[in-house]
């Protein structure tokens, strides 16, 4: 997540889904970046729980597993983007900025 910080974004990192869920600030999230392979509660399950709690922030799922069924499951569960590891830091930054821009209604013409 260091590449996101370097690009000027405010980042909060958590070691597990449970660590994020125990923090009350979860509703002030602008974009989620979740690894699908988290201990205990998976990244997709985390997104499901956050959606049930009213968090509408767009999400990026990352995983070393790049099979078609994984991609399909990610999209079926309402995650906006999927990045297969390894990926360039600039790809992650671009994806997050794209989602943040679409969330705030900006366009490339602005």
Distance between the termini: 27 Å
The overall average pLDDT, rounded, is: 89
The CATH homologous superfamily is called Response regulator
Q: Quick one: overall form?
A: globular
What is this structure, in a nutshell?
The chain is an alpha/beta fold.
Can you walk through the features of this model?
The chain is 40% helix and 12% strand. The chain is an alpha/beta fold. It has one domain: 3-Layer(aba) Sandwich (Rossmann fold), CATH 3.40.50.2300. It has a three-stranded parallel β-sheet with strand order 1-2-3, sandwiched between helices. The protein is globular. The C terminus is likely disordered.
Give the helix/strand layout.
Elements: H1 2-6, H2 17-21, E1 32-35, H3 43-52, E2 59-63, H4 68-76, E3 81-84, H5 89-103
Parallel strand pairs: 1-2, 2-3
List the defining traits of the structure above:
single chain; 110 residues; alpha/beta; Rossmann fold; 5 helices; globular
